[in-house]
Amino acid sequence: MKEPEKEKNQKNQENNWLKSYAKYSALALQMIVIIVVTTFSGVKLDELLKLHTPVFTIILSLLGVFGGIYFAIKDFIKKQ
Amino acid sequence: MKTRRIIWFLFLFLFGIISVSAAGAEANEPTGEKEQFDASTFILEHISDSHEWHILTKQNGESVAIYLPVILYRKGTGLHIFSSRRLTHGRVYKGFRLEEVGELKGRIVSVNEQGEADKKLPLDFSITKTIVGMLGAAIIGLWLFLALSRSYKKTGISYPKGIQSFLEPVICFVRDDIVIPNIGETEHERFMPYLLTVFFFILINNLMGLIPFPPPFGANVTGNIAVTFTLAFFSFIIIQISGSKGYWRHIFATPGVPFWLLPIMIPVELIGVVAKPFALMIRLFANITAGHIIVMSLLALIFIFDSLAVVPVSILFVIFMDCLELLVAFLQAYVFTLLSALFISLAIVKEHH
What is the per-residue pLDDT for B304? Predict the structure, then answer.
């Protein structure tokens, strides 16, 4: 490999490290945020409506987990 | 690359230990005759916003601080502007009091004649510590970029010199390595002003937060959730406004999804729309606050052990952490800009099915 090409490659790799750090950590963080926010709002909603069985907690936390996985897979495919 | 991983590992490891010890310190009640050092108050006072800029506490307990202006609006009595010195030591002024304990600690409340706090808080537009820090960053930013534009006006486009040689590579880096690879050659110019502003705003504030003294340096600006919320909110608005037809179709009628699934898919997609900027907000806030907490905890160790022998160890660790924070300051500015550009690029993408 020629010198300048090698240098360029090295620079690209450096950038790739940063870029993949940013992208994949965003993916994980997004999953966490979705699950936490939906579950928390479910708990708060049940408290507000004074429900005996925590219906909203169950529905929203399941929706959150589903959504988290959905977005993780969707974004992962997009980033490949 | 390996060393970086090791550094990150150390970072997480240290943070784990310190957050535990800080939580432990919180449980300690002050006992004995000598007043015990309370590490968590020491740290939290630095992390949180406040109406005064505390500089030092004299040996007799008197504190030296810069008292910042308080600007309040209360329905009925209108606008009030006065110095926060009038609210020190729990004093009541014009029917306002700065709460020192309880749920509303650090907030200004209206009180009645009996001294009871009103549940309804006055609107607080005060120039707080964070705002002074931000204004300082704005002045530094203006100074840097006005000088830059002046020097370009004078010399034209030639080889960079003076302040140009410092800022031009950074601006080119943002354009060539962050914005163009994501948004593309044709449309990137529309978003450059916002992305460059965000990049430099975060970068300058992060770096200013690392310099402990004098004011306006050393405020925890980008570690304030209200500031990061506002930044993320701007990104959110820009993403929605520049969203293409395809972007909205993917949300309300995801291609390839049977119609009976839509009632589930639409809420999920809407959560995704909000979750992306939300993650941006949390990430910047958590990273910068964590850095400040670690540095403050390491300094607090001196007072917890109450011994001079800890000083060199503590100082060494603080220097190490500061170097790491220097990396984090650039990294977080980079990441925020990169992810904003990435989300914008996902929104403006044309239909390609």
Answer: 87
Comparing A71 with B145, the larger pLDDT belongs to B145
- Contact (CB<8Å) B335/A22: yes
Closest listed residue to residue B240, CA positions, set B289, B286, B277: B277
Q: Are residues B149 and B104 located together in one domain of the fold?
A: no
B87 and B156 inside one domain: no
Min distance A22 CA to chain B CA atoms (Å): 6
Q: What is the pLDDT of residue B322?
A: 92
Residues 6+ apart with CB under 8 A from B121: B104, B107, B108, B109, B110
Q: What is the pLDDT of residues B148-178, one digit of tens each?
A: 988 888 887 777 777 888 888 999 999 998 8
Q: Which of A22, A64, A70 sits opposite B338 (nearest CB)?
A: A22
Residues B120 and B238 in one domain: no
The token pair at B187 is 């449309």
Secondary structure of residue B52 in the 3-state scheme: strand
Task: Identify the domain containing residue B207 by its residue range.
Answer: 129-348
Residues in B closer than 8 angstroms to A66, CB to CB, are 264, 268
Query: Measured between alpha carbons, how far is residue B340 from residues B30, B255, B320 in Å?
Result: 47, 25, 30
Contact status of A17 with chain B (Cβ, < 8 Å): yes
User: Could you tell me if B270 lies within 8 Å of chain A, comparing CB atoms?
Assistant: no
